[in-house]
Structures are given as C-alpha cells and as structure tokens.
Amino acid sequence: MPGHIRIVNDPVELVPLLMTFNDPSFKKVYELLSKSWMTEDEIGSQVSPADVNTCIQVLKKGNLVEEQWRMPKRGEKPTREYRATYNKFRANFQCNLQDLSDILYLSLSKDESLRNLVDQIESELGNGSGSINDLSRKFGVSPVFIKGLAKRIPHLDVKGQGLVRIDAGR
Predict the structure, then answer these.
(1) Residues 81-120: pLDDT tens digits?
(2) Alpha-carbon distance 47 to 24, whole Å?
(3) Does pTM surpass 0.90?
(4) Strands 79-84 vs 38-39: parallel, antiparallel or unpaired
(5) Nearest CA-CA partner of 46 in 25, 19, 65
(6) Comparing C-alpha atoms, which of 57, 27, 21, 61 is closest to residue 151?
C-alpha cells in the first residue's frame, strides 16, 4: 500500500475523513485495516462489535477502504474482508470559509439538532423531494451543508444534484 494518496478535490469529501479521525472507534478500525486485510468479525474482536458496521460504512463512503471476498475453508461461507486504501492525503480544493465552517461543524458535531434535520430531510426524501438545492432552500442551509450531512449519515448519499438512500450492503 505504500504511495497510495487520497486526493480530495471536493471539500465535502472531508466529512468522512474528519469523522473517522475524530472518533476513537473509527480511528482504531482504520489503524487495524491499514495493517492487514480483516473481516468484520476480526475487527469486532478488537473494538466494540456494535461499532464495526457503522465504521465500515463511513470508511466506504470516504473511499478509505477496499473490500474483497475471503476464500473460505471447506464447508464455510465466504466473508468480506477490508483493508485501508490510502496512507497519504492531499487536498486540492478551494472553498469559502462559510462552507468550510459547515463542513467542520458537520464532521465534528454531536449536536442533537442535526438528528432532527436528518429526520426532516428523510421525510422529504420519502415524499419524493431529493433535490439538494430544494432541500437547502427549504431548511435554510447551504447546498454544501446538505451534501456534508449526506456524507455523515451512513444510509444517505449524493448522486448528481440529489440525495438518495443507499442500502447497508453497498
């Protein structure tokens, strides 16, 4: 893995990175995966098993891990295994300070009002309104804030100019 560099061209891509390295469980999972391929069960033996699935989902959204199927022993089922993709980082973007403050707030905040906003956005998605611009106008936040929120929530993602739900087995 030496020499793999994560190049970030969009500041919203910082959200999963900052979340990963600000949370002790996420950071530990990343450190484990930077050393070798591991299954979720193997990771769960070294960190809280309840955190493993969420950690893997956030790392996937940040394109920080790769996965493959581990060849099983005779009579066993194949399992997915993961490892860290990058060991270096380079930022190649420019943004205004308001967008940067939104990204930092979303990445590092434990504010409960974010949970309420996510619930409202999910309700709008259920009603068929997934446009990032429409959602930002409706809730009085910037489009970068909406995109960053989607990067923070494991089951939401940005596709083109809209927000979509993703399945957990992605």
Answers:
(1) 999 998 888 999 999 999 999 999 999 988 888 888 988 9
(2) 10
(3) no
(4) antiparallel
(5) 25
(6) 61
